[in-house]
């Protein structure tokens, strides 16, 4: 089927099934184009909890659909590609985290939302790339155990006094970007600013003019007077950046900034998922209640 016919069919089925179509900022352009809402991982899960629709079609990766199922257990949550996982989320297991907690019984566990529900359930509080430093500052902790992203962990640690222990996980997509990639882009575009996601390595972040979450990047791009911006995150973000800022130029810092998992979901997958109402993502009640506590504690932290 042609792209516009597929898109029209999906919208028709969404209306028939009372479904909300959510797309993460890294999804394919043609999916972002028809999504009811595009956003970062947590914002989308909160939209899932807020909506009065019965069905959530989550175009993203597994942990995001799980977060929606944790926050909106009464709704049907569909992940059109069940094999769309997040390698970083899979770098830590609940069992592994329990072991590390046993070695550091006095530490407070701060877990990035890019993690499984089972890992969140073992955590004291969650954080996202946009509120991680605020969350860490809000805690009266002796020691912090930062899970699973070592890069986000080290970024947090730079802003606080509390001793930190890091889980050695990382996002393969962001971790691939090198200092040389950024230096090359800066040399080719000396008048550009460089914005980077905190999942990048500390050496890359040293070169950044602005460090923020994907949603923060839309805001920065809108507000800055710079006309050229080098982008240090997954290439899917370019769709909205270019659409919302037609007079500005966006340069991807490295061709390697493609998350294969975020690119798995196609329009055909979304259509099939709405037709079959599969694959559904659920979280057992036992895990859900504990994971929700960690998410709720994060949501109670005041924003800047
Ligand atoms: P945010 O959209 O929350 O910034 O996360 C980036 C990411 O890598 C999601 O997989
Ligand atoms: Fe996971 Fe990185 Fe892909 Fe996000 S971009 S889904 S953190 S692998």
**What is the CATH homologous superfamily assignment of the largest domain?**
NadA-like
The biggest beta sheet, please? 4 strands, parallel
Strand order of the largest sheet: 2-1-3-4
| Form type | globular
Q: Work out the number of β strands.
A: 12
Topology pattern, helix = H, strand = E: HEHEHEHEHEHEHEHEHHEHEHEHEHH
Oligomeric status: single chain
Helix percentage range? 40-55%
Q: Return the CATH topology of the largest domain.
A: Rossmann fold
By helix and strand content, what is the structural category? alpha/beta
Number of domains: 3
Straight-line N-to-C gap = 47 Å
Percentage of β-strand residues: 15-25%
What is the top-level CATH class of the largest domain?
Alpha Beta
What does this protein structure show overall?
- The chain is an alpha/beta fold and 304 residues long.
- The protein folds into 3 domains: 3-83 and 262-283, Rossmann fold, CATH 3.40.50.10800; 88-170 and 287-299, NadA-like (Rossmann fold), CATH 3.40.50; 173-252, Rossmann fold, CATH 3.40.50.10800.
- Helices cover 42% and strands 15% of the residues.
- The chain is built from 15 helices and 12 strands.
- Strands 2-1-3-4 form a 4-stranded parallel β-sheet, with helices on both faces.
- Helix 11 links the parallel strand 9 (193-196) and strand 10 (210-211).
- Helix 1 packs parallel to helix 14 and helix 3 runs parallel beside helix 4.
- The mean pLDDT is 96.
- It binds 1,3-dihydroxyacetonephosphate and iron/sulfur cluster (SF4).
- The site of iron/sulfur cluster has 12 residues, from helix 9.
């Amino acid at each position: 089927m042609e792209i516009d016919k597929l898109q029209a069919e999906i919208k028709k089925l969404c209306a028939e099934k009372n479904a909300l179509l959510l797309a993460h900022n890294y999804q394919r352009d043609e999916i972002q184009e028809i999504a009811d809402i595009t956003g970062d991982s947590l914002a989308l899960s909160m939209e899932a909890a807020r909506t009065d629709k019965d069905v959530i079609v989550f175009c993203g990766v597994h942990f995001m659909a799980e977060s929606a199922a944790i926050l909106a257990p009464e709704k049907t949550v569909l992940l059109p590609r069940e094999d769309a996982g997040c390698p970083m989320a899979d770098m830590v297991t609940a069992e592994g985290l329990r072991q590390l907690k046993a070695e550091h019984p006095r530490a407070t566990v701060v877990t990035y939302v890019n993690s499984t529900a089972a890992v969140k359930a073992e955590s004291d509080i969650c954080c996202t790339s946009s509120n991680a430093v605020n969350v860490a500052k809000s805690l009266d902790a002796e020691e912090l155990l930062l899970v699973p992203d070592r890069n986000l962990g080290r970024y947090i640690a730079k802003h606080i006094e509390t001793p930190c222990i890091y889980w050695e996980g990382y996002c393969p997509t962001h971790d691939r970007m090198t200092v040389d990639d950024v230096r090359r882009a800066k040399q080719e575009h000396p008048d550009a600013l460089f914005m980077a996601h905190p999942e990048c390595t500390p050496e890359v972040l040293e070169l950044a003019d602005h460090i923020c979450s994907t949603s923060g990047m839309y805001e920065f791009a809108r507000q800055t007077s710079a006309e050229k911006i080098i982008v240090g995150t997954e290439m899917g973000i370019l769709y909205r950046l270019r659409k919302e800022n037609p007079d500005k130029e966006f340069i991807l810092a490295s061709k390697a900034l493609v998350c294969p998992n975020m690119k798995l979901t196609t329009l055909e997958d979304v259509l099939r998922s709405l037709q079959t109402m599969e694959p559904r993502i659920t979280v057992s009640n036992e895990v859900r209640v504990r994971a929700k506590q960690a998410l709720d504690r994060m949501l109670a932290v005041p924003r800047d």
